[in-house]
Amino acid sequence: MLRIFGHFVPIPAVVIGFCEIMMTAAAIYLATAPTTTALAGEFHFTASSIQFSLGMSAIATGAMGAVGLYNYDVFLDSRLMITKGLLALAMVVPAAAIGGLFLSRDMLGDLAGSWHALMFKSAAAWMGCVVVTRVALMRFSDIQMFRRGVVVLGTGARAERIADLARRHANHYFEPRAYVHIGADPHLVPAEDLDLSAVKDHRALAKFARGLGVREVVVATDERRGMPIEQLLHCKIEGVNVVDYLTFWERENGRIDIEALQPSWLIYSDGFRQGRIVNLTKRAFDLVVSFLLLVATLPVIGLTALAIKLESPGPVIYRQERVGYHNRTFMLYKFRSMRADAERDGAPRWAANGDPRITRTGAIIRRFRIDELPQLWNVFKGNMSFVGPRPERPFFVDQLADSIPFYNERHSVKPGITGWAQVNYSYGASLEDARQKLAYDLYYVKNRTLFLDIVILIQTVRVILFREGAR
Q1: pLDDT for 391-426, tens place per residue?
Q2: What is the CA radius of gyration of the chain?
Q3: Any residues with CB less than 8 A from the CB of 52 and at least 6 apart, and which?
Q4: Pair 326, 408: CB distance under 8 Å
Q5: Strand order in the sheet with 174-180
Q6: Does one domain contain both 164 and 135?
Q7: Are residues 196 and 341 in the same domain?
Q8: Sign of the Cα pseudo-torsion (444, 390, 393, 294, in order)
Q9: Residues in CB range of 188: below 8 A, 6 or more apart
Q10: The last residue of a domain, from among 109, 143, 177
Q11: pTM of the full predicted structure?
Q12: Is position 267 within any domain?
């Protein structure tokens, strides 16, 4: 894993993305080169044409990321890859067409007057590169060339969670090669025949790891007593990385293990960057994006308001009190998607699958997240950010804070329209769902940067396109 601006990004995704940008840029440049020089076998590289090629390849790569083409499971499912590839193509073609309409003859020569030819050649060059890279990766995916081995120190509940994670989820980039028992840990996973408390050699663990071709030891003991400090020290000295369980879990899952979380880890770990520059940058980003989206979605807003008004009596905009930054309450705006008397008994409750309170128009706007559009005004006013933990109602916050440790820590940043939990977890409608979403929210609070916000916005496109979590 690479840590880019505080966010953990899989190395294979970075390598594949970089290779595809470069390959696509070169292919688009060659495909759209001026006809006269191309026939002569000569290419005059100009700054403007190179910028166009790099820009188009960056747009194409962004479209692929938006539909989830860099997720590990996509490489193992050819049908899913084709489906998402076609969706990305549908996003790339309009960008190529717009480029063809506005580019000058000086930039692209003969092709500048033929926008449809430019569009076709750019899209075809991109698709060719995608087919080559994806076929090659699917061919070699079985050898697990991107997986790294780890030795897990511990055989208790934490080690069992790592084993279960590796067994149930194929989209992770690690492979436990061995589990080593230590201290008073219970034997919940099979352990190697290596008793660190009895060996005299302080380099025994480092030698054992190297013998397995492993460069990382994960300390996942349930008890800290009897920790082999000398063994871990020599692992570190000899180039074998040592990482604690909570950091390993955060890195591999993009979330924090709430059950094992301790205040000391939050205090001493990296993250929680909140400075004036960070806040000003995020606020400027929120203002620009919310204003542009408000203007761009005005037709959708108008049609949605009309549909709600025609279908059922009641207000078009639904106002609801939510808990925001530093536990301060504010009024959140949404398009009304339920009957006006949805809570006539006065008891707040989460929406459920097939909820009879949802109107026909409400079902459609919820599916495509159109009901969230009025919250752009909350962002513009400053009650919310574009990206952040979803705000909850005070009634639910009081319940959840009493039942889930560290729940109120999610209010240390502004709530958002979309968030890290929304793109990684389905709609939450129970205490357990709230617990799982908090694990992602705390990851965001700890690692939030403008880079992570952009990653979330890109992945939000995937959530909307594939209707993930809508209810």
Answers
A1: 999 999 999 999 999 999 999 999 999 999 998 887
A2: 26
A3: 28, 32, 99, 103, 107, 108
A4: no
A5: 174-180, 148-153, 216-219, 241-244
A6: no
A7: no
A8: positive
A9: 155, 156, 157, 159, 160
A10: 143
A11: 0.77
A12: no
- Distance, CA of 379 to CA of 385 (rounded, Å): 5
Same domain assignment for residues 219 and 331: no
pLDDT over 60 (residue 139): yes
Query: Which residue range(s) make up the domain with 11?
Result: 2-143
Per the DSSP assignment, residues forming a β-bridge with 375 are: none
Which token pair is 97?
């067409």
For residue 411, give the 3-state DSSP assignment. helix
Domain-embedded: residue 263: no
Residue with tokens 């909820």, as numbered in its chain: 355
Nearest to 440 by CA among 418, 462, 470: 418
- DSSP H helices, 141-221, are 157-168, 204-211
Interatomic CA distance for residues 153 and 224, integer angstroms? 11
Pick from 17, 450, 417, 84: nearest CA to 9? 17
Q: What span, in angstroms and rounded, lies between the C-alpha atoms of 392 and 214? A: 44
Residue whose entry in the numeric block shows the structure tokens 């400090």: 229
Angle at 12 between CA 9 and CA 13, to 5 degrees: 55
pLDDT of residue 17 exceeding 90? no
Count of domains in the chain? Answer: 3
**How far is 362 from 338, CA to CA, in rounded Å?**
6
Report in angstroms the alpha-carbon separations of 465 from 67, 68, 72, 239, 290: 8, 10, 19, 44, 20
Considering the domain architecture, whether residues 280 and 424 belong to the same structural domain is answered as yes
Per-residue pLDDT band at 300 (split at 50, 70, 90): very high
**Do 442 and 307 share a structural domain?**
yes
Do 12 and 64 lie in one domain? The reply is: yes
Count of residues making up the chain: 471
Report d(CA 409, CA 323) in Å as an integer.
Answer: 12
Q: How large is the average pLDDT for residues 193-221?
A: 92
Q: Is 260 inside any structural domain?
A: no
Q: Report the DSSP pairing between strands 148-153 and 174-180.
A: parallel
Of 453, 72, 415, 438, nearest to 255 (Cα)?
Answer: 438
Where a domain ends, among 81, 114, 143? 143
Residues 84 and 210 in one domain: no
Same domain, 405 and 445: yes
> In sequence order, what are the residues at sequence separation of 6 or more whose Cβ sits closer than 8 angstroms to the Cβ of residue 454?
none
Instruction: Determine the 3-state secondary structure of 205 from DSSP.
Output: helix
